[in-house]
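ESCALATION

Customer reports they have been waiting on this structure for their group meeting. Please prioritize. Original submission:
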Amino acid sequence: MSDQIIQTGEFGIGKYSDDRIFADVTAAGGWLPRLQLMGSNSDLVKEAKIGLGRWALLTNKDSFIDLGTETHVLILGWRPKAMEIGDEVVSVFNPKADEFKRIMEKSEEPDSGCMFGPEYLVWIPELKKFAGLFMASKTARREAPNLRALMGKFATLKARLIKSQRYSWHGPVVTPCSATFEVPTMEEIREQAEKFNNPPEDEVEAAPSGGEDRPR
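Update from on-call: job pushed to the front of the queue and completed.
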């Protein structure tokens, strides 16, 4: 076979083919990619695939995009969420549900795999992707009001190293962002917001393979 590279653009583009459609048909169901600050308990950090204190977008259960030590996001909405990670991942969105309250209480136990907090719907202009940002640790929950205060605006996400007498860990830092970026169309925002704001009372998915961290 010839080594010549075929210029596929010469054949044109299918009438149903564009970047958004490609993203939709390759997405894992309705799973929203997760934007996460990587800590020492993450398998990706332990396997030296990404450094500590860096932001990453977990695009599916086996891959991620390294966004560096800071990234910019457009804040579009929030919802309450409780999550338990075991053989499966159980997410509960109704804060009045007994299961939500159970996960909240269990989150106080060491290595319980349980966490809760506000989850934000964000747009990452660098990647032109929507994502969920789960502020699930005690440190993140303390910073979460700064995100809510910037609803409908751009924020810059950074990280800071926090030290106690026994431990050290990275926590998120939220600051206003004065830069301007391309934003999605209102149709795209409404579509994502509708799904985000109306989740099932709870949902179950396969356990993650490397990105999840035990937050402090």
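Sent to customer with the following note: Residues 31-206 form one domain.
Escalation resolved.
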